[in-house]
Specification:
Layout (H helix, E strand, L loop, with lengths): L10 H20 L12 H9 L4 H18 L4 H17 L8 H26 L11 H7 L7 H4 L8 H46 L4 H7 L5 H16 L1 H8 L2 H16 L10 H20 L3 H12 L1 H22 L2 H34 L1
Length: 375
């Protein structure tokens, strides 16, 4: 890649993005296979019954398969990691000076120029290329989506034509309120900011889930406040890494932080069993998984080819996020009928590799053209 990198680079961040986007893409493909849901009661017994091991070696195989299925089907949790990393990246960039170089209007302009060109191209690709899942007709909603609306009318557009684009609507909302959040972080400090964010997030989620129940898509991301904690947690980490980089890195990559993250993530998984407990599910799983994947990404750097590959994919993860799902759903549906599970997995790995290389090349070219045209 020819893009000039800054002198200071947190390479594990790109590695985390690479791991997260590949996990999400594989989750979308694997979700078409008929396996029990890992967060349901009796998952292990149900899986064991269908696997029916007849020997000790068979029991080991079934255990590994059950673990692999569970990990794959939890791939949607990696979306929360991207929410955290979005807050991290924005705040790490601004924490040094405390002000955008060109003011907040210039900041908004740069954010929109980063988001929309590739987003618009993803819409055009869907219109012109074959071999994509087309569950709904093209109508007025396509124009609304093209303009950035993934919220209204909620029941008709949140998952319209390319379900992964719901996250784009959440990003726009978080970017819209980011200047206010950044000022609160500056004034209240990290501790106060996290307390206020927790109160706002959990209070809103409890009301929308238990007091005045609404469409679950509002809690997932159609309204930013129920997902504020993950973004705020990333902002706090970005602030600390800019102000106290050595101390923050030492803490993040300590065994104590990893152990605490595993515990937090496990608590988040337990929150799926009750509606009131679900108030805390996304915050716990997102926060815990972010720290876990930071350790995984750092470990992958010890194998330079793997680390560099994941970092490269993470650097251009936005294009893969925007483009992959219609293609994956189309080919996964065909592969699920034509192949056994091993054959399906092999076909999906090949497809994901092809989509990854293509989307990286496309995003790189779009970035170059955008820079030349608009600066």
């Amino acid at each position: 890649m020819t893009t000039t990198r800054p002198a200071v680079r947190l390479d594990w961040l790109d590695g985390m993005k690479g791991i997260s986007i590949l996990w999400i893409v594989f989750f979308h493909a694997f979700s078409l296979l008929d396996f029990p849901w890992p967060l349901s009661h009796g998952y292990w017994s149900t899986f064991w019954k269908s696997c029916a091991p007849s020997s000790s070696l068979g029991e080991v195989r079934c255990g590994l398969e059950a673990l692999g299925v569970a990990l794959t089907k939890l791939g949607f949790h990696a979306v929360a990691v991207f929410v955290v990393l979005s807050g991290f990246g924005l705040t790490y960039s601004l924490a040094k000076t405390g002000e955008p170089a060109n003011g907040w209007l210039g900041w908004y302009r740069s954010r929109l120029l980063r988001l929309f060109p590739m987003y618009w191209l993803a819409h055009l690709v869907y219109l012109v290329l074959p071999f994509q899942a087309r569950p709904e007709r093209i109508d007025y909603r396509f124009l609304l989506s093209f303009l950035g609306d993934r919220v209204w009318p909620l029941d008709m557009i949140f998952y319209y034509f390319n379900p992964a684009l719901w996250y784009f609507g959440l990003l726009l909302q978080l970017y819209l309120v980011y200047p206010l959040l950044f000022r609160v972080l500056q004034k209240a400090g990290v501790g106060g900011f996290l307390v206020l964010s927790a109160l706002a997030t959990f209070g809103c989620r409890y009301v929308l889930l238990c007091v005045w129940p609404v469409d679950g898509n509002y809690v997932q991301g159609a309204f930013f406040l129920p997902r504020l904690w993950e973004f705020a947690f990333g902002m706090a980490l970005g602030w600390l890494f800019r102000k106290e980089p050595a101390r923050s890195e030492s803490w993040l990559f300590s065994y104590a932080a990893l152990g605490a993250a595993c515990l937090v993530y496990a608590l988040g998984l337990r929150c799926y069993g009750d509606l009131r407990a679900y108030t805390f599910a996304d915050a716990l799983t997102g926060s815990g998984l972010t720290i876990i994947l930071a350790h995984v990404a750092r470990a992958c750097e010890r194998l330079p080819p793997l680390g560099r590959t994941l970092a490269a994919i993470g650097s251009f993860s936005y294009g893969l996020y925007l483009l992959h799902q219609p293609f994956v759903l189309y080919f996964a549906a065909a592969a699920a009928k034509a192949f056994s599970t091993p054959g399906f997995l092999g076909a999906m790995i090949a497809l994901i590799a092809l989509l990854t290389v293509a989307s990286m090349a496309i995003e790189r070219r779009v970035n170059v053209l955008t820079q030349r045209a608009l600066g």
